[in-house]
Design brief:
The chain has helices at 20-30, 84-91, 125-137, 155-162, 175-188, 222-235, 254-265; strands at 5-11, 35-42, 48-54, 57-64, 69-76, 80-81, 97-103, 106-107, 145-149, 167-172, 193-196, 211-216, 236-246, 269-279, 289-296. By secondary structure, the chain is α/β, with parallel strands linked by helices. It has two domains: 5-107, S-adenosylmethionine decarboxylase, CATH 3.60.90; 116-307, 3-Layer(aba) Sandwich (Rossmann fold), CATH 3.40.50.150. The strands form three sheets. A seven-stranded mixed sheet has the order 11-10-9-12-13-15-14, with helices on both faces. It has a six-stranded antiparallel sheet with strand order 2-3-4-5-1-7, covered by helices on one side. A two-stranded parallel ribbon has the order 6-8. Strand 10 (167-172), helix 5 (175-188) and strand 11 form a beta-alpha-beta unit. Helix 1 runs antiparallel to helix 2. The relative contact order is 0.12.
């Protein structure tokens, strides 16, 4: 028997310019749905109606500017994320919510206890949603081969649920994390390739130059960050986009300065850096936040691991 889930969101009609199509796509993607097609019709002087055809069913948008009213309706045969309401409120934060009703079943993935020996601190569900939205915003999902080097936050599950990527692969040292991903993949019929791997070791040949997009939230040491980046460099194509996280406080700016110098010395271009993009629980040493670096390779990119010094994990 297939579960039928229905979401109704009633809001105001904002006076400021709104990217309605992006909002609708983000709602669908962050709720784990696959967009098959879309159609939007704009009225003059304002107002619109829109529709997303989803593999799971559909999303419809109706607006009545003269009554200062907008209505989103989402129907899905797939279980909704446990934090569905938080994700919805984050995406439509610029709207005045007048009614939000969620009917149906939710899915929940329980992560194992964080392991300090691997520098594990879990990101919030809202952060995972923001990451997926950022990947979508930069067109790094549809048809792309996606690698996660370490996946404590189970981002691979969120990405696989969109159904947009051509491949999702996880390399992780933690058997418990791999076990959770494997179990969830089986229950939800998600296609995620899993491999136990220690980033301190060279990258196996069969993973080299295979991926269009790569993400990692590595240990926050120059040695750890640099080693993970070196592995992602090997794993990705020349045109790939690499996402890296790094946490620090404003009182310790010498730490990101070392990372900045490393990126420069190795010839990586920082196409975007977003301060405090990631939020965590229990990571007090970095004020529970970290920056997101979005990197591109250049003709000058050349990794030299001999430049790396110091401990690999923060407790080394």
């Amino acid at each position: 028997m297939v579960a039928l889930n229905h979401i109704t969101i009633k809001t105001n009609f904002p006076g400021q310019a709104i990217d309605w199509e992006k909002i609708c796509h983000n709602l669908a993607i962050n709720l784990g749905m696959t967009v098959v097609d879309s159609k939007f019709h704009y009225f003059k002087p304002r107002g619109l109606t829109g529709f997303l055809l989803l593999a799971e069913s559909h999303l419809a948008l109706h607006t009545w500017p003269e009554q200062n009213l907008s209505l989103f309706e989402i129907t899905s045969c797939k279980k909704l994320p446990q934090d569905a309401e938080k994700q919805i409120r984050q995406i439509i934060k610029d709207f005045e919510i007048r009614g939000l009703k969620i009917e149906g079943e939710t899915s929940f993935v329980e992560r194992p206890k964080p392991k300090r020996e691997f520098d594990q601190f879990y990101a919030t569900a809202e952060t995972v949603s923001k990451r997926v939205a950022k990947f979508s915003e930069r067109d790094n999902l549809k048809g792309h081969r996606f690698l996660f080097l370490g996946d404590d936050d189970l981002d691979s599950i969120a990405i696989a649920r969109t159904g947009l990527t051509s491949e999702v692969t996880v390399l992780d040292i933690d058997n418990d994390i791999l076990g959770v991903i494997q179990k969830t993949s089986h229950l939800e019929n998600l296609k995620i390739n899993l491999q136990k791997y220690d980033a301190k070791l060279p990258l196996p040949n069969n993973y080299q130059e295979q991926f269009d997009v790569a993400f990692s939230d590595p240990p926050y040491t120059p040695q750890g960050f640099g080693t993970f980046l070196a592995r992602l460099d090997k794993a990705t194509t020349k045109e790939a986009t690499i996402y890296m996280c790094y946490g620090y406080t404003q009182k310790e700016l010498w730490r990101p300065l070392k990372i900045q110098k490393l990126l420069s010395d190795w010839g990586f271009f920082i196409s975007e850096k977003i301060e405090d993009f990631n939020e965590y629980t229990g990571a007090k040493s970095i004020s529970n936040k970290s920056a997101l670096y979005i990197l591109k390779k250049t003709p000058q990119t050349k990794v030299n691991e001999k430049l790396l010094t110091g401990g690999f994990y923060t407790n080394d």
